[in-house]
Amino acid sequence: MGLRVAVVGATGNVGREMLTILEERLFPADEVIAIASRRSVGQEVSYGDKTLKCKDLEQFDFSGVDLVLMSAGGSVSKEWSPKIGATGAVVIDNSSAWRMDPRVPLVVPEVNPDAVMGYDKLNIIANPNCSTAQLVVALKPLHDYAKIKRVVVATYQSVSGAGKDAMDELWTQTRGLFVNDELVKEKFTKQIAFNVIPHIDVFMEDGYTKEEWKMMVETKKIMDSSIKLTATCVRVPVFVGHSEAINIEFENPISAEEAQGILREAPGVVLVDRREDEGYITPVEAVGEFATYVSRVREDTTVENGLSLWCVSDNLRKGAALNAVQIAELMLNRGLFKRLAAA
After folding, report:
1. Where are any strands of DSSP class E within the chain?
2. Shared-domain flag, residues 227 and 263
3. Are 146 and 196 in the same domain?
4. Are residues 333 and 262 located together in one domain of the fold?
5. Residues 6+ apart with CB under 8 A from 81
6. pLDDT (tens digit, 9 = 90+) per residue, 71-128?
7. Do residues 30 and 86 share a domain?
8. How far is CA 126 from CA 4, 159, 325, in A?
């Protein structure tokens, strides 16, 4: 017996990726339903070799649905996730709406799988921010070994994290610069083609952006509230794949060789770290892959017990859709879907 699964926001970048990953990982679904806003009703999306027509979120009856993968934005999730959860369906939400709600677990299966047990307060589980997800996958095994005190991270985030319109803007600006078209800025505050922008999400009173704040507070909630983290989040002219330069200070000694050995065996991590030309991973190689890649592991001699490393992942996958499906798989393995448990 399989599950009845709905994907809300099925026409977006992440929604489409969710459908792809459900099929790729052979998730046991008897029925998969594509749901979107009213303006997208009837639009077709792919699920394996099938074509699904989108249904209207406001008219759809969620009773009898076991799992909802929600990727329709924070305001939609705030309104609809509790309503859907009240029908008995489990909502795995990709927006920021519920991440810091104490009633809602924030889960990365390789890092804090036991947190999933708290789902039943609202029947909602939150996916972390895309940059946080890959970060904690890389940090957790090192934290278990030597206990992290402080993290300094600079992100190099692809435009796909801002949606399809942002990808279109990068393409249009890049092409336009070669043919002397007028440069149009709509999704980004400055030119993104051949440029980098140290500004993701809104500015807060302390000078950090909300994207940077998310990384700070989400890492604490997922891993350890004692970890100090500061972030600088930068948008770069890459279509898919987030990269991070991470500097870590530990309480206990850890060498680069020890860290490499730990990361080589860590769940969800692929270590590619040869100190030679092309002996590291870039976003181009990470696209379409499930792993969080770690490269350039080295000791930071400016602090006691310090390491620096490079981390790359497909943000539409581990940063969003893959993590959501992995949470669903975790629930399935623990027998937490009520209809299946009662069967």
Report:
1. 3-8, 29-36, 44-47, 50-53, 55-56, 67-70, 90-93, 124-126, 148-157, 228-235, 242-250, 269-271, 292-300, 306-313
2. yes
3. yes
4. no
5. 68, 70, 91, 93, 97, 98, 122, 124
6. 998 999 999 999 999 999 999 999 999 999 999 999 999 999 999 999 999 999 999 9
7. yes
8. 20, 22, 12
With tokens 């000694």, the residue in question is 253
* Strand pairing report for 306-313 and 242-250: antiparallel
Structural domains counted in the chain: 2
With tokens 């009898």, the residue in question is 64
Kindly list the catalytic residues.
130, 242
User: 24 pLDDT exceeds 60?
Assistant: yes
| pLDDT value of residue 123 | 97
Q: Are 71 and 92 in contact (CB under 8 A)?
A: no
Ramachandran assignment for 56, one of left (phi > 0), alpha (psi -120 to 50 degrees), beta (any other): beta
Q: What is the pLDDT of residues 245-266, one digit of tens each?
A: 999 999 999 999 999 999 999 9
Mean pLDDT over 145-152 rounds to 98
Q: Is the pLDDT of residue 205 over 60?
A: yes
| Sheet with 269-271, edge to edge strand ranges | 228-235, 148-157, 242-250, 306-313, 292-300, 269-271
Alpha carbons 92 and 323: distance in angstroms, whole number: 10
Tell whether 327 and 293 lie within a shared domain. Answer: no
The token pair that represents 173 in the structure block = 């600006």
By DSSP bridging, strand 67-70 and strand 228-235 are: unpaired
| Cα–Cα distance, 232 to 218 (Å, whole number) | 15
Distance separating alpha carbons of residues 116 and 34, to the nearest angstrom: 25
196: part of which helix (H) or strand (E)? none
pLDDT the model gives residue 39: 87
Please answer whether residues 245 and 152 qualify as being in contact, where contact means their C-beta atoms are separated by less than 8 angstroms: no
